[in-house]
Amino acid sequence: MLDTLFRPRGVAVIGASRDETKLGFGVCRNLTGSGYAGAIHFVNPKTTEILGRPCYPSIAAVPDPVDLAVVIVPAAAVAETLHDCGRRGVKIAIVVSGGFGEGGPEGKALEEEIARIARQYGMRLVGPNCIGVIDTHTPVNTTFVKSVPERGDIAFVSQSGAICQAVIDWGTGMGFGFSRIASLGNQADVAEAEVLGALAEDPNTRVVTMYLEGVQDGSRFLDVMCGAAREKAVVALKVGRSAAGKRAVTSHTGALAGQEAAYDAAFDRTGVLRANNAEELFSWARALAWCPPMRGDRVAVLTTAGGPGVLAADGVEASGLRLATLSADTVATLHSFLPPQASFGNPVDMLASGGPREYILALQALLADPGVDAILAISVPPPIEDPLPIAQAIVTGAQSAAKPVVVAVMGEATVAEALRALRAARISDYRFPEHAASALGALRRRACWQSRPPFKPALFADVDRAAARARLNGAGAGWLGGVPAAEALSAYRIPGPREMLVRDEDEAARWARQLGYPVVLKVASPDIAHKSDVGGVALDLADEAEVRHAFQRVTESARRARPDARIEGATMQQMVLKGQEVIIGAVRDPQFGPLIMFGAGGIEVEGMRDVAFGLAPLSREEAEAMVDRTFAGRRLRGYRNIPPADRAAAIDALLRLAQFAADFPEVAEVEVNPLRVQLQGEGAVAIDVRIRVMEEHVHRAAG
Amino acid sequence: MLDTLFRPRGVAVIGASRDETKLGFGVCRNLTGSGYAGAIHFVNPKTTEILGRPCYPSIAAVPDPVDLAVVIVPAAAVAETLHDCGRRGVKIAIVVSGGFGEGGPEGKALEEEIARIARQYGMRLVGPNCIGVIDTHTPVNTTFVKSVPERGDIAFVSQSGAICQAVIDWGTGMGFGFSRIASLGNQADVAEAEVLGALAEDPNTRVVTMYLEGVQDGSRFLDVMCGAAREKAVVALKVGRSAAGKRAVTSHTGALAGQEAAYDAAFDRTGVLRANNAEELFSWARALAWCPPMRGDRVAVLTTAGGPGVLAADGVEASGLRLATLSADTVATLHSFLPPQASFGNPVDMLASGGPREYILALQALLADPGVDAILAISVPPPIEDPLPIAQAIVTGAQSAAKPVVVAVMGEATVAEALRALRAARISDYRFPEHAASALGALRRRACWQSRPPFKPALFADVDRAAARARLNGAGAGWLGGVPAAEALSAYRIPGPREMLVRDEDEAARWARQLGYPVVLKVASPDIAHKSDVGGVALDLADEAEVRHAFQRVTESARRARPDARIEGATMQQMVLKGQEVIIGAVRDPQFGPLIMFGAGGIEVEGMRDVAFGLAPLSREEAEAMVDRTFAGRRLRGYRNIPPADRAAAIDALLRLAQFAADFPEVAEVEVNPLRVQLQGEGAVAIDVRIRVMEEHVHRAAG
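Structure tokens for the assembled complex are given below, as produced in the milestone run.
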């Protein structure tokens, strides 16, 4: 359906203008100037001719075909115009006009009305408050933007018209072209996911880029993007980080999640590369469009001076890549044409005498080295000539290479011709070595994602959903802890500790024998929150005598300290000295559903921020990767004198928690802190479980 | 002395050339073209005239004055040329020629020889292997670089000639000028610290920038820069991060330090701003040169479209700043001239109708708001006109403002005129809002450093240096632990734990009473390393009965498990349940001396990397800042249900450790892990101390 947006048969401009200071003129100018081969119709009741073409008094008077209408009339007139379009059989209307939802509740109502009108005629609506679309291959340009993008293979979709304008101007100035550009405005009907799908299917597009303020429908976004990124590289500039962390949450998981963690997890699953700023978006996109895949992380740096080589080496490491170790063969080849004072390590420094011939030969040698996955070539401003011959040599040496070659052409004043030569050969150029390295990093992350197996949620058949539901239904809205919370999770086979209440010394001795020494005793009292403060805790009890003595001590200490407290006896647990503690949790994200956390547990989790996030349900690969992204998770394999823990059990618990969170939409937050991961083969135990049940679900269950 | 380098009376070019493909011609062209008003002398025995000026056969034949000689002759001829220069009374020789230390040991020997020759005549030597110097105000240009920098107020010093060339080309292309540029090459004589001093004293320089691969003399660098940054903003691009961590070290402190931590600490102390890449270096420098100081961290963003405003807001937060809250007065003023649909929060979005008049009025309103410390104004590519009128309006509104105003002119193809207008008015422009925000971040960090008190080391008079020396002298090279290490630090008043050896049950009971319950008992045996593995540890002993029973248990368990082991009894310590554990340590940096670390202790310190570094001796402010940079340090003030600890005692121990490390150059590493910081008023205890003594010092002490 949306293909029509980029390849319409017939376009009408409603609100076309002869006045060069009006946007309605800009659209007419761009549309006629774009080389669009279909029918172009201008509509304006006040004039009969614009740019030498006839102008119709209304859309009704426009002859066939007219798939697409571009609407630039005052907001108050848009509804009537859309009725006209609908009656005329227009398939898609782009509403450029502003004055809708962006301006307040009144405009929001008007926006809802125009969406309704479109639906009524089965017509699709782009905007309002947008700048339209461009397809440089059709070609068609419905925008009023002065700069006209060159034909290229990068598609761009934007939730901000101003960013669209800037991007077109950047592209024009920096010498890269676009395949399709779409400005979405307020998204009254057509939203980002659908357009992204259309861009991903476009045969002229190699890389899809986007400016995103948010997604409308998280699960649709995940569906579309999972498929899209298999075919095309996708890079997102997701803004709004600064608004993060404003959600009202009470768990560690919630406090740590922010709203960006869900986007990061969604991008990670779907292979969307997240650019950190507007500049990176297109730095990366150009390399992704023009370079072959990067099969490994080993980069060779080619330079004619030391300093730029060091900048590049720093950039390579900062981008998560490493410097390749050159083979003996490669070094021998380099020796055959470089002076002996050159550096034959990596960076390869050919010295200032390195000219076009040396660049060609060195590139060939490095490309042939099986230990090299990509090349970062540097052109330093030459003291005598200009950098064009070097750029031409790089083109000769790198063109049709099966490995990525990116170029840092250092300088600005004297580089224009060199850049033109590189761009014509589809070789990505950067002014700074660090940016070139960053682009290689993006290529590598893309290749890593492509080599992952397709997403498949890990779901366990042995969970007892009914038992868990019974536990949740038994509770009201708000936090649920203690036994019911523990039992809800143990129904999903996340077990709690072996723990029992002992009422006297003899019972304590009996149970201790059964549990196995050493054990821990804590006074049991509903009235005492901080048991250690009243001398109510005894650790590391190693035999029966110690247990008997400790039972007396903890109960008596507590009685002395709090004569009013009800003392029920003591709870006894095995003392697990060698386990490791982690936290697992989930918090519901408004767009993407349950956001799952794994990390370092204990009360310090928020301070340390040693945590990783994913979306529920998780795949096994995702759970593994989450564990390995944190220090607490890597430590499960053993660390220094800490023995390996039951990492498999921790991953199992994480997957089961994700399944639990996905199964029960009434669970707003769930947190196991700590999850004690015992020695290998001994499992993981949920020591403390808390679940927050949402009010609306309780009401619904009750109603 | 070095002022002569930038303001010479008379310059001779030795190795001048008529051949336009030679560097020796480039120098002649630049020198004569630079407008240099002093005497210019060309020296080349093979010609009599270059560029219409007479050419002398030798430096001896050159008439007075001749302060400076630029030497571009083959490496083999440099020594003889320098003899000639020395005899002729040349004050400074710039050796452009390569073929010295950069090429291997032979070249290194030649380099040492030419440095010797220069010293012999009291002549200073810049280079070899450099591209010389430029002063655009003198004016003089001794380089061969084709691009010629404009006059400006940014000085640049570089340890890479190629970076110098690139920087000149960037500056020329991006429209900012330089005051002085110096390329240092191999630094056979003149090194970075001395030149930085000369740049800082230059009245035409407002900002000093540098490309640094390393410093030659750390303490000299610290001396020079502490003074320099008081007067001028200083920004460094310190490269070589990727080579970090290669030092051979065995402590946590050493493993975590890398070599970059010492540079970071040195820059922090001296107010040098560290740019992350070449682009940032000059992004920041322009704002530092052109903006007034930024008195607080509250930024107002002014835009005509939402998306760019969000990019700017993200950038503001990412740069360590925050969005200002506008006063009611400001909002009322904005309402008086903006449409009601505009956004009056921050970012202020004037909507697309915001033209030159609105920019001027809004800038004035925001500048007048006492809650605004800086303004980030955005110019979106206008759909109809070009951005020049907006830029002119920003100039009108912002010129002579007492607060920083930076501008993001988004776009590239249509912005040239707008940029020229802004630059002419000394207003910093950026293509991307995030870069503009980053520059404000640098302005703010500069202002924060300027408000710090001058560095004053915190030194304690109550330390017993002789006692500590006695302990160190008693040991050989290598690691020193146990009692002697603890005693060396306790001589510096970093106390160890109260701990004693008890030989029988009665003694145990007696000491426990004296220490206060609860206590810990560990079997004492020189043969048993892992005491808990043999049941040799008893924790949390709360009364005499438990102590007596535990003494029997731990000694008997150990005897059973290891019948061969010598059992001396048990060591007893107070069980401190409520202290917090941190690590403090020092490792000797080759350039900057002892590098001091504070952070989260325990065996996980390397995994968590929750650490901060400083240079010894520390000032009290530095120690406080180090503690507050880490979570482990912030937690000392109390965190959730962890009570506040004796933070003052931890800072005291950190300062004393730094003093100890500074006092004993034979100490290669010292580490206290953990330092147990007890409850407020109860001090901090060095639980485990290890000191590594360097071999050469032991030999020296022995020899």
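Residues 9 and 102 of chain A are 31 Å apart (CA to CA). Chain A touches chain B through 99 residues (CB under 8 Å). Further analysis is deferred to the final report.
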